[in-house]
Specification:
It is a single chain. By secondary structure, this protein is an all-alpha fold. It has one domain. It has 5 helices and no strands. The longest helix has 21 residues. The radius of gyration is 18 Å and the shape is elongated.
């Protein structure tokens, strides 16, 4: 597989970030991203989302969140904040 379209690139994002992208797809993936500005932007946004998710899931710093912020978010989600 050498030529990929944008949709195919998006289907391989998880494998790309997990470093499990099939060898036969690797060149096509990188070739497309090198020539497609939209996919480069999408790839970077996906990467930033992963980093933000990882940071949000860390226990460190959770105590630094203002209690009123935690309550507001939990209320918006329709959940009761932990006591």
């Amino acid at each position: 597989m050498t030529d990929l379209c944008c949709r195919e690139v998006s289907e391989f994002l998880m494998e790309y970030f997990d470093n499990t992208l099939p060898e036969d797809v690797h060149a096509g993936f990188h070739g497309h991203v090198a020539t497609c500005q939209n996919c480069r932007v999408f790839l970077e946004q996906y990467r930033e989302t992963i980093v933000a998710g990882q940071m949000a899931c860390k226990d460190e710093g959770a105590a630094d969140c203002p209690e009123d912020l935690v309550r507001a978010v939990m209320t918006a989600l329709g959940k009761e904040p932990k006591a």
